[in-house]
Design goal:
By secondary structure, this protein is of the alpha/beta class. It has one domain: TIM Barrel. The protein has 15 helices and twelve strands. A seven-stranded parallel sheet has the order 7-6-5-4-10-9-8. The protein has a three-stranded antiparallel sheet with strand order 1-2-3.
Amino acid sequence: MSISFEVIHKDIMGRLGKLKVGDKTVRTPLLLPVINPHIQLIKPEELAKLGVEALITNAYIFSKSEEFRERALTEGLHKVLNFDGVIMTDSGAFQHAVYGDIDFTNVETVKFQRAIGSEIIVPMDIATGPDKTHDEAEAELNTTMERLKEALTIIDDGHLCAPVQGGIHTDLRKRAGREVKELNIAFCPIGAVVPLMESYRYRDLVDVVMAAKSELSPSSCIHLFGAGHPSMFALAVAMGCDVFDSAAYALYAREDRYMTPQGSYKLAELNELPCACEVCRTHTAEELKKLPESERTRLLAYHNLYVTLAEISRIRQAILDGTLWELV
């Protein structure tokens, strides 16, 4: 298989591991910064200098981009983004969830993702929100599983991942985990958890993650889709999640929000910058506040990403030391 996962060390359910994607190997727990090709506050080559080993971008955005579509098809994602690490692509399911029907089918997205050189390909799953009834969630799960099996007829070289859906209904999450396990797919994102995190429904978050984990293969690498704030990484890792993706570092920066491992602050509230990253070493809070918006946003994004990556490193060390619970 083109994707495989090896567990090196454990604490609670947290795992240090090696995720092999083709001829590349990355360490887990792992952060995938989200890159929008049109809005790059931090360019992918800068990410590599920060130690980023993998990133995620959106196939739907590339497919609809006059600027990037043909380049991606002819040159490939890695050249277009100037990034040599692992690149995962999302299918467009997020846009479908937010905007309704989009002109991009399951077959089209998986073929496009393969054509542009994605190394972890996501089928067009349905992100079932917490407001869905059991019957509605079950119907959407049925569609997601049908699309996953359809995608497997196209992507049969091990580069396909298997989203685990089911809304807040734990029996459906367990069923999804069982069915995905039977397909022997190594990389499994647990999806549609962002609304739970945004509304601080951590009990429900724990319930759905643990339900899915209870049925997924222990050898699967688990991606908690949309989880990007460092304040919840330790909890998620303790539940057995291995991979996270973050657009939050950029989204928060655009709102003048300063991330810490414990939470976030509005920049206007800060008199001090409680961090030792390059931005915080070379600027005071007052200096940041007075910068032009575009420069301030870029620097906040750098800080936010630094803090996010640092938390991943801290968790890796805690797993080795057997002290992960102290971070939860």
